[in-house]
Specification:
single chain, alpha+beta, Nucleoside Triphosphate Pyrophosphohydrolase, Arc Repressor Mutant, subunit A, three-stranded antiparallel sheet, 5 helices, 10 strands
């Protein structure tokens, strides 16, 4: 319960919000979930999804609540990015916003684009101007994603449970925005020994097909406990 004793009554109040940078991958390109605001200020303009922190609620709880309300998803990879506190960043008043970025597989959650909030997946290459400092948040989130993907297997959060090696390579090429050598990539990934090769194949991309894999989270955790370091 929040302490209501007026210890700080002599200080001015302001609002605290969270904004969610929701990245998705559709097996070909990296995308961002945005919407057109349905309220002022900036009604009708493109925006990240966000909201105010409620009384008795932590920042993490607020970020997870907003994401769940939007997509119905829980236990999603989410990380606090940075606080944005310029006094004039919001024309409606003094609002401090804490940005989070989240990773979800866009292929499994296409219904998010048809919800009542008007959520739309947009390619990062075609990202329109966003309100306030939201474009800055996205750029910061993408830089953080690149750094994390180089040292942690968070890229698998953007893939469906079962995926092919070409799809995995396409993901990392989308994150790093550069082409990777097929042979070297495959060799490096398989050498990590954190994938489970399945008997089934994905036949959608070629007549020969490509074997499906799963990321072995349990094995990866055991390797980390033994001092293993993921590097891409």
């Amino acid at each position: 319960m929040v302490n209501s004793t007026p210890y700080y009554s002599e200080h001015h109040t302001f609002h605290v919000a969270v904004d969610s940078i929701i990245f998705g991958f559709d097996l070909s390109e990296l995308k961002l979930l945005i919407h057109k605001r349905r309220f002022e200020p900036a009604r009708g303009e493109w925006s990240l999804f966000g909201g105010f922190v409620q009384e008795g609620e932590s920042l993490d709880e607020a970020a997870n609540r907003i994401l769940y309300k939007l997509t119905g998803l829980q236990k999603v990879y989410m990380e606090e990015l940075q606080a944005y506190g310029e006094v004039d960043r919001d024309p409606a008043g003094h609002v401090i916003s804490v940005a989070y970025y989240a990773l979800i597989p866009a292929t499994e959650y296409k219904e998010a684009s048809n919800g009542k909030y008007g959520a739309t997946w947009v390619s990062l290459e075609d990202l329109p101007p966003l309100i306030m400092d939201h474009n800055e948040m996205v750029e910061k989130g993408l830089r953080r994603l690149k750094r994390r993907a180089a040292t942690q297997p968070i890229g698998f959060e953007l893939l469906p449970r079962e995926f092919t090696m070409p799809q995995l390579q396409s993901l990392y090429e989308a994150i790093y925005q550069s082409e990777l050598d097929k042979r070297n990539f495959r060799k490096k990934i398989l050498a990590m020994d954190v994938l489970i090769k399945l008997d089934q194949k994905d036949m959608s991309s070629s007549r020969k097909g490509a074997y499906l894999y799963r990321f072995d989270k349990k094995k990866y955790r055991k390797l980390v406990e033994g001092g293993y370091s993921f590097t891409m």
